[in-house]
Design goal:
The structure is a single chain. Helices cover about 50% and strands about 15% of the residues. With about 220 residues, it is an alpha/beta fold. The protein has helices at about 15-25, 30-40, 45-55, 60-70, 90-100, 115-125, 165-180, 180-190, 200-210, and strands spanning about 1-5, 30, 80-85, 110-115, 125-130, 135-140, 155-160, 190-195. The strands form 2 sheets. It has a 5-stranded parallel beta sheet with strand order 2-3-1-4-8, sandwiched between helices. Strands 6-5-7 form a 3-stranded antiparallel beta sheet.
Length: about 220
């Protein structure tokens, strides 16, 4: 199984990617993991990427593409993989198609996690993090015993800047502009499958597995 996971911020991609990779016995391949591995390993691509990240700039597509190409060529990914965080736009998707063609293979499926925009805002804006130990709570779904105080260490809870509603809505706008065309690209190629990503984590996983393995 060679698959890509797409969906808006707050759709649960990271959680589902980890579970699905285990369920399908394939490696989870995320751009974040690839960046960290190259930077910590001191590779030439890692040094190049770090120079951009240190300035607060986006890593150019050509650098990201080469990192992904190298990761997909590794032994554990030769029989399948689940990509999370790549591609993010149509040019990256076209590059991925070309990479896989060079390897003599192609994508089996692109799984879209669908979540209502207001649900995303509620999920992300309700998060609170402990300043001391970093534990994350949610004001509705997983509140601390005492408001504003961490159960684990007694530290104060705060809302991260990127969890503020105006920032979340901007991220969703960027997603619509850059990533939604990707959904149409894969739909036109007949590999897109979409599921509702609301409800219990295990229910979403069950839907995802059923979509990726119809009739299994």
């Amino acid at each position: 199984m060679r698959a890509v996971l797409v969906g808006p911020p707050g759709a649960g991609k990271g959680t589902q990617a980890q579970i699905l990779a285990s369920e399908l016995s394939i490696p989870k391949v995320s751009t974040g993991d690839i960046f960290r591995a190259n930077v910590s390993g001191g590779t030439e691509l890692g040094r190049t990427a770090k120079s951009y990240m240190d300035r607060g700039d986006l890593v150019p597509d050509e650098v990201t593409n080469e990192m992904v190409r190298g990761r997909l060529a590794e032994e554990d990914a030769r029989e399948g993989f689940l990509l999370d965080g790549f591609p993010r736009n149509v040019p990256q998707a076209e590059t991925l198609d070309s990479m896989l063609k060079d390897m003599g293979t192609a994508l089996d499926a692109v799984l879209e996690l669908k979540v209502d925009e207001e649900e995303v805002v509620k999920r992300l804006s309700g998060r609170r993090s402990c300043r001391e130990c970093g534990r994350v709570y949610h004001v509705d779904y997983d509140p601390p015993r005492a408001a504003g105080v961490c159960d684990a260490c007694g530290g104060g809870l705060y809302q991260r800047d990127d969890d503020r509603e105006e920032v979340i809505r901007h991220r969703l706008e960027v997603y619509r502009e850059q990533t939604e065309p990707l959904v149409a690209y894969y739909r036109d190629r007949g590999v897109l499958v979409a599921i509702e990503a609301t409800g219990a984590v295990e229910d979403v996983t069950a839907r995802a597995v059923a979509a990726l393995r119809p009739g299994a």
